[in-house]
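Input:
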Amino acid sequence: MGYLASMRIWRGNSADGQLEEHKVEVGDGEVVLDVIHRLQATQTPDLAVRWNCKAGKCGSCSVEINGKPRLMCMTRMNTFAEDETVTVTPLRAFPVIKDLVTDVSFNYQKAREIPAFKGPENLKPGEYRMAQVDVQRSQEFRKCIECFLCQDTCHVIRDHEENKPQFAGPRFFIRIAELDMHPLDQLNRTKAAQEEHGLGMCNITKCCTDVCPEHIKITDNAIIPMKERVVDKKYDPLVWLGNTISRRKSD
Amino acid sequence: MENGVGAPGRAKIGVRHLRTDKWWISPLISVVVLLSFIAYSTWRAFENDFYYVDHLVSPFYSPCLATSCPPEAAILGTPFGDWWTLSPALLILVFPLGFRLTCYYYRKTYYRAFWMSPSACAVAEPHKKYTGETRQPLLLQNSHRYFFFAGLIFNIILTYDAIIAFKNPAGEWGHMSVGTLVLLANAIFLWMYSLSCHSCRHAVGGRLKHFSAHPFRYKMWTFVSTLNPHHPKFAWVSLIGVALCDLYVRSVATGQITNFYIF
Ligand code: SF4
Ligand code: SF4
Ligand code: FES
Ligand code: FES
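Output:
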């Protein structure tokens, strides 16, 4: 049955804070979020924590557990040894508000910077016709729950605050890829990805893919294909020549 | 730690990372394997000997383009003439080297293992500034597709070498030795590595928006997409494979082992 787990929880606000140790009862089959709730109910009633669905689908409960960006509601306690101290901290790439709650508005700002889908002028919504094979490639990216764990782990901004203005981050690279691969989208997103959203800053080290709870292959299926498209548009003299001479419609 | 995880406003935790697992093992293995390969291949490329014996050609020396090459190894002739007196391996080295250096997977590996940018996820990197692949020399990574196509030519040549290895020392066809199998395996690994490449995936169909308008290319893209997730595996297997293949040819050429003929 249950046991007493050693939990180390970060408490504080944007000015200061520290890790605090607590012993908390753990029951069978429980996840980290259950233990945090028990801690809140029994010992630290003012512990701030953000959560919603407890089913890995709302993307609210993102924190770092033993140094790894994870969802609290999807991290089972039985993945830790009973005598192991489990450390829970807020996301370390974003400003902290209180305890485990961070201000993720950076991501909402980045979302606004990406123009929405733009269909063909001569078609009204409802008249769009697409083959399944044309849309299924980007359906993977629609699984995103916006937990921002990928954004949090990405060293481009995690380790370099000054890169935030010019870097959209992996969550938004999959958004750009989704639209760029859409058969009816009319905007030229490839160049913008490189010049406005900082695709070139990504060095494909794949931490975003490693932490994504939806197992979206962010790097392999969105970032690298977009980098290849950028090469077509910006860096490959032969593709440029081919497109200029033949004026072919290449997509 | 003024910047990054220590930037103002972020939770003050005071350490570079809180990971408790052995995150440093994987970059360490990468460093050891890559450095060993570089050491071995450099030594072999300069050795300029023991790369051809009885219709077995070492992959480091194929195609052999210098006048000093044995005729059976010089399958593309010797366009470089007499003036090239160094090892013929150095003439072709840039292609496989460039291919692997610009490979998306090796980039990940050496950015993590050597440049520590980052060594592992959520482990703060030691660099003050970071611009990613937006400046020279890293903009050259965009040439990967050219090396990919050059790599295909090398694959064809190395496959040809494997076919030549079906001759016995007397030059008669229809024989097979352990060396034949070694060269064959090497060629297969290299094909798997190339065909699972991200630039390959893009070229065959990834660049399209309308798969439905290009059913054949969609088929090819689907095929490459099944190989692509295994690219890291093929990258290591083919790298170690090339070195072992060369070592085998060298060991036979120096007489340390006998190339056993199965039939
Ligand atoms: S692969 Fe690119 S976007 Fe993803 S975490 Fe690494 S640097 Fe960031
Ligand atoms: S891509 Fe994955 S990790 Fe990133 S926000 Fe979406 S679900 Fe979370
Ligand atoms: S509470 Fe919704 S994802 Fe964890
Ligand atoms: S060879 Fe690795 S991505 Fe092309």
